[in-house]
Specification:
The chain is mainly beta. The chain has 1 helix and 7 strands; from the N terminus they run βββαββββ.
């Protein structure tokens, strides 16, 4: 895939936890890095729970494998893209002989 096909800028974030008074923790999300990706819709669904309709969307983000390796991206991280927050649903796997890999992101579900 040429670089011209990765036209979407995504942000990878990681949750950081800090101990506060009383032994509790507070958490915040901090930017880990940015990279260009190709985003492809791969599915979605709707479900009703306690009277509320929940929409779930899944996208495949094809990104440079080296950038993911350098950032140490894991399923505990998340993707910000196009005004949405996408939980990373799989451990990133690189295809043999390919300089890219796919991150599967899902929105509409808890982290």
């Amino acid at each position: 895939m040429g670089a011209g096909q990765r036209t979407e800028l995504i942000v990878i974030e990681r949750e950081t936890r800090t101990r506060v008074r009383g032994g509790d923790f507070t958490s915040a999300w901090a930017e880990l890095g940015r990279m260009w990706a190709e985003a492809a819709y791969i599915g979605g669904s709707e479900s009703a729970s306690t009277g509320a309709l929940r929409t779930t969307l899944r996208y495949r983000f094809t990104v440079p494998a080296e950038a993911v390796r350098q950032l140490g991206v894991t399923p505990a991280d998340r993707i910000l893209w196009n005004g949405g927050t996408y939980n990373i649903r799989e451990v990133p796997r690189r295809m043999a002989g390919s300089p890219e890999l796919s991150l599967i992101g899902e929105t509409g579900v808890p982290q």
